[in-house]
Amino acid sequence: MKSRRLFPMLVILPLLLVMSTGHSVQAAKQSYKRTVVDYQIPDVTLINQNGETVPLVGYLTADQPILLEFIFATCTTICPILSVGFTNLQRKLGAEAAGVRLVSVSIDPEYDTPPIMKKYLERYNAKPGWDFLTGTEEDIFKVMKAFDAYVPDKMAHMPLTFMRSPKDGKWVRIYGLIGGKTMMKEYLALAR
Predict the structure, then answer these.
(1) pLDDT score of 94
(2) Domain spanning 33-191: which CATH class is it, in words?
(3) Cβ–Cβ under 8 Å, residues 102 and 130
């Protein structure tokens, strides 16, 4: 008798899973917001994972595609996903990755020191062209505010990826977590 009651559930449950998965895939395809913005880069000097100073204005206005994200090394929520996106983009671009500047800016400058940032990049198999930057709390706040990404508590940070076009200097602001195909599509639209 129990097996007769279980049979409909065994048929219905997979159907529900398929239907909900299809809906989730559709929702994921539309889960980010894309805007084009003209940001003013603040005149600050940050420090990369090798302890080298980086004047931000010149660094973020170079004549090459630039992708930027705000993360912190101890994050266990959206930062690893954003960083995997950079890893996958470098891998997919192959030799072309050398012409793309990837920039992770720490939103936890008290903890994220050059040695910690270097280990973080090693964990994500970062190739040359991907830098992790930190600085004083005041300078980091200036950068976050310039990109309309400021949050007073790092735990409330947003899933943002910024892409700068070398053609016109405008930034594409992507709000939401995007997959590898979408990131590549956005990058190709930007770079070509």
Answers:
(1) 93
(2) alpha beta
(3) yes
What span, in angstroms and rounded, lies between the C-alpha atoms of 43 and 19? 51
CA dihedral 185, 189, 191, 192 (to 10 degrees): 120
Residue 130 scores a pLDDT above 60: yes
> What is the pLDDT, as a whole number, of residue 108?
97
pLDDT tens sequence across 59-75: 999 999 999 999 999 99
The alpha carbon dihedral of 112, 113, 115, 117 has a sign of positive
CB 46 within 8 A of CB 139: yes
In the chain, the DSSP E strands lie at 33-37, 45-47, 53-55, 66-71, 101-106, 130-133, 160-164, 171-175
Residue 29 confidence class, pLDDT cut points 50, 70, 90: low
CA distance 14 to 191: 42
Q: Map out the domains of the chain as residue ranges.
A: 1-30, 33-191
Q: How far apart are CA 123 and CA 120, in angstroms?
A: 5
Rounded-to-integer distance, Cα 55 and Cα 77, Å? 29
What tokens does 51 get? 């302890």
- Report pLDDT for 31: 83
Residue 113: CB atoms within 10 A of its CB come to 15
